[in-house]
What does this fold into?
Amino acid sequence: MRVAIAGAGAVGRSIAGELLENGHEVLLVDKAPTAISVERVPQAEWLLADACEITSLDEAALQRCNVVIAATGDDKVNLVVSLLAKTEYGVPRVVARVNNPKNEWLFNESWGVDVAVSTPRLMSALVEEAVSVGDLVRLLRFSHGDANLVELTLPEESALAGTQVGDVEWPEDTSLVTIIRGTRVLTPSREDSLEPGDELLFVAAQAREEQLEDLLSVRREDTAS
It folds into this structure.
């Protein structure tokens, strides 16, 4: 997946680092020469340019991007970048940073924004979640203890599709806290069944994340063989 990030400050570099760790292609764009610190994120592409200018976005080949993240410290810039990415280049997913909470009402579809958020980790997680059915996405790391809030969208072919929550042998140190099904938010009971497309939120020990992902993503034919 190719991701362009407007704004190469601390927030933009933090997002870029996480996405690169997950195997994505990242381009950082900033108009300030002092912000171009290739040595800090050497695996990323870098472009010294104004992300509010069409010529700059042409040079960045925004039409090839799956996601654009407007991560500058200026809400006006983030809105312009979002609008251009969506309307001029048809970018499927636009994520924008909100710096001033008073401006949050502006960050909507009218300005080309699909998701408006304010923390680097949540921004990168939302990008991952948009394209990663069947993959575990870490949404939040708790500051105390070795536990994370993680999300997985249950694939159509999962062996657990149709299984009741109470019949699943969950890994130790994991807890299913919420099922998001369409517009509904469900507090899971033992009798609730898991359905393809469900967004499952867990609090899980980091050491159990791989085991949890394997359990939820295993294909039906794999269990039958």
